[in-house]
């Protein structure tokens, strides 16, 4: 089939669509991010439904489309994890065989002593925590002492929170670079170091959009690397560049929230790029999934659904739009961790048949990367099967 000139890939961070067969092994029996939000507070997603949302899996209040506008399906994660990095790497052809190291009891004293000595500041916290909860708990003490707040989560992350008036951003970023250097040691390995700046006063603290992630690089070549090597565009919007440690990203566009991300994507789609525009919409996960807020999560989904027509109208005749997710985060489930789920898959273009067909259950997220590589004539990634031949073109 004739290839597409451009591909736009949207990751709805944590928008899972039902437990994977191995979910119980991850402590996630019976999870269903979309389904449970719909059951708890109702969901009105007419535009996603028109693409085929409930044709993938019945979502209460959203009837299956008689003639879905998009090709649709769902994808299984096969990597050994359920975090952001694992999911995104798998989308680009990398399977993670060994789970990333986590710190459910906090970081070892040896690491924190070396970290504190290097940065010239003390450390508060050192435990798994919600980012908003820990700044509410320790923000005032941080402002009094100048000690930085260090915390982790169920993911492999070393997070550093500091008030922007106490620790200027440039210093916070240098502190994170120090943590990144120290945690490259196999004894203390973490996948991401994250700067978590905040502002405000006790009782009214608020995290800012000046977050910055410092990730390890993928263990081998991704489809994005191939795009860059072929002199094609590989544009990362939102935290994409951070997730891949900048590798394979020819241009990075920062965002402040989901709706700003949609605005930035629309701007890129109006440009004459050739290759991939890849965006992560993080609010579903960071603001609502981890905080176990189904009401806020539902509103965010409906906000995106209202913007979907703008995206479809901007996609050009020879563009391909892919919408999916990177894991689940069922806000009705116990704890604050991601959940092991299938992710939805929507594939749409003005040049495809107006009646979409089922792409079935894909065996790995890497089918997305394989499709991108197939479209641009690149080497197939180590994992994944292209669904490009399965797309039904207009007659």
TrEMBL record:
EC number per UniProt: 5.4.2.7
This protein's UniProt keywords? Cytoplasm, Isomerase, Manganese, Metal-binding
Give the record's pathway. Answer: Carbohydrate degradation; 2-deoxy-D-ribose 1-phosphate degradation; D-glyceraldehyde 3-phosphate and acetaldehyde from 2-deoxy-alpha-D-ribose 1-phosphate: step 1/2
Q: Which HAMAP family match?
A: Phosphopentomut (MF_00740)
Annotated protein name in UniProt: Phosphopentomutase
Positions bound to Mn(2+) 1: 13, 326-327
InterPro entries hit by this protein:
Alkaline_phosphatase_core_sf, DeoB, Metalloenzyme, Phosphopentomutase_DeoB_cap_sf
What compartments host this protein?
A: Cytoplasm
- Cofactor section: Mn(2+)
Q: Which reaction does it catalyse?
A: 2-deoxy-alpha-D-ribose 1-phosphate = 2-deoxy-D-ribose 5-phosphate; alpha-D-ribose 1-phosphate = D-ribose 5-phosphate
Q: Where does Mn(2+) 2 bind?
A: 285, 290, 338
Occurrences of domain Metalloenzyme (ranges): 6-379
Q: Which domain of life is it from?
A: Bacteria
What is the role of the protein in this entry?
Isomerase that catalyzes the conversion of deoxy-ribose 1-phosphate (dRib-1-P) and ribose 1-phosphate (Rib-1-P) to deoxy-ribose 5-phosphate (dRib-5-P) and ribose 5-phosphate (Rib-5-P), respectively.
The primary site where this protein sits is cytoplasm
Task: Spell out the family assignment given in the record's similarity comment.
Answer: Belongs to the phosphopentomutase family.
For this protein, the record's Pfam families field holds:
Metalloenzyme (PF01676)
Write the gene name: deoB
GO molecular function terms attached to this record: phosphopentomutase activity
Can you quote the record's cofactor note?
Binds 2 manganese ions.
């Amino acid at each position: 089939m004739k290839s597409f000139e451009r591909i736009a890939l949207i990751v709805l961070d944590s928008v899972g669509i039902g437990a994977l067969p191995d979910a119980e092994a991850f402590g996630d029996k019976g999870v269903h991010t979309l389904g449970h939000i719909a059951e708890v507070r109702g969901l009105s997603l007419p535009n996603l439904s028109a693409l085929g949302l409930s044709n993938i899996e019945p979502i209460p209040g959203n009837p299956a489309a008689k003639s879905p506008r998009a090709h649709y399906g769902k994808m299984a994660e096969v990597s050994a994890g359920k975090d952001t990095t694992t999911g995104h790497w798998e989308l680009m052809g990398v399977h993670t065989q060994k789970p990333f190291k986590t710190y459910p009891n906090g970081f070892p004293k040896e690491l924190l002593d070396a970290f504190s000595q290097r940065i010239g500041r003390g450390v508060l916290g050192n435990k798994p925590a919600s980012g908003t909860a820990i700044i509410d708990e320790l923000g005032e003490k941080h402002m009094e002492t100048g000690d930085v707040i260090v915390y982790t989560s169920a993911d492999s992350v070393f997070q550093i929170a500091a008030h922007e008036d106490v620790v200027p951003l440039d210093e916070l970023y240098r502190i994170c670079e120090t943590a990144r250097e120290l945690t490259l040691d196999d004894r203390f390995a973490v996948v991401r170091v994250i700067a978590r700046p905040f502002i405000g006063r006790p009782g009214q603290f608020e995290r800012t959009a000046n977050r910055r992630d410092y990730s390890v690089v993928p263990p081998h070549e991704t489809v994005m690397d191939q795009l860059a090597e072929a002199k094609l565009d590989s544009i990362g919007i939102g935290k994409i560049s951070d997730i891949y440690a900048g590798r394979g990203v020819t241009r990075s566009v920062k965002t402040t929230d989901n709706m700003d991300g949609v605005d930035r994507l629309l701007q890129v789609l109006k440009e004459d790029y050739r290759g991939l525009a890849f965006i992560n919409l993080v609010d579903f996960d960071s603001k609502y999934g981890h905080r176990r807020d189904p009401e806020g999560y539902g509103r965010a989904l409906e906000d995106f659904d209202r913007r979907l027509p703008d995206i479809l109208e901007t996609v050009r005749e020879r563009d391909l739009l892919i919408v999916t997710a990177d894991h689940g985060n069922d806000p009705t489930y116990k704890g604050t961790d991601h959940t092991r789920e299938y992710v939805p898959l929507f594939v749409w273009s003005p040049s495809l048949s107006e009646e979409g067909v089922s792409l079935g259950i894909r065996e790995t997220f890497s089918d997305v990367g394989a499709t991108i590589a197939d479209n641009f004539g690149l080497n197939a990634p180590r994992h994944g099967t292209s669904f490009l031949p399965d797309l039904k073109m207009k007659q």
